[in-house]
Amino acid sequence: MKLIIGLGNPGKTYEKTRHNIGFIFLDKLQTTWNFSNFSLNKKLEAEISEGTLNEKKIILAKPQTFMNLSGTATQKILAFYKLKPEDLLVIHDDKDIPCGKYKLAFDSSSAGHNGVQNIIDTLGTKQFKRLRIGIENNDTAFPHGETSDFVLGKFKKTEIEEIEKNEMKIFEKISNLF
């Protein structure tokens, strides 16, 4: 059994923001892989979808604890399903990677991502996989610490197009991990 956590913030306000790319990708994976509909599990503080891929049970989870407290839900889900951090893939935004590009990481620092850092702090380890999906665009600069305005902003049409160009490659990369 494997766990894929998509990072984001719950609620309509954040629905189509760059910071919610983890939630956006989980919704697409759920549909593409024909997994069960997401349902809220209050005990685990997450929306959960389940299915089978390559003959392995996969849990998709969207923490409802807000980005900076993602470790709380992650820890509860791992414990409930009796999984280890090595069974975990976290999908999240990365403002230092060009929009639509992606990088796979394992046992690496949070690189300043507060949601990932909270998972590392809560689990006490970096021994899990991360799929970092780029949201950076060339006309974005952060001269006065405006990073939060950018990541909490909605995607531009051109950014969505860039992400969708690589979507199938990203899905393939994820399915090959399992």
Structure in words:
The protein has 178 residues and is of the alpha/beta class. The protein has one domain: Peptidyl-tRNA hydrolase (Rossmann fold). Helix content is 33%, strand content 27%. It contains five helices and seven strands. It has a seven-stranded mixed β-sheet with strand order 2-3-4-1-5-7-6, with helices on both faces. It is globular and about 40 Å long.
Primary descriptors:
178 residues, alpha/beta, Rossmann fold, seven-stranded mixed β-sheet, 7 strands
> What structural category characterises the helix and strand content?
alpha/beta
- Our Rg estimate from Cα atoms comes to 15 Å
Major sheet strand order: 2-3-4-1-5-7-6
Q: If you average the pLDDT, what whole number results?
A: 89
Order of helices and strands: EHEEEHEEHEHH
Please give the CATH architecture. 3-Layer(aba) Sandwich
Query: How many independent structural domains?
Result: 1
Overall body shape: globular
Q: How much of the sequence is in beta strands? A: 25-35%
Examine the coordinates and then state which fold CATH places here, giving the name of the CATH topology: Rossmann fold
Q: Please mark out the parts with pLDDT under 50 across 5 or more consecutive residues, or reply none.
A: none
Helix percentage: 25-40%
CATH homologous superfamily assignment: Peptidyl-tRNA hydrolase
Find the count of extended strands (DSSP E, 2+ residues): 7
The helix count comes to 5
Distance between the termini: 9 Å
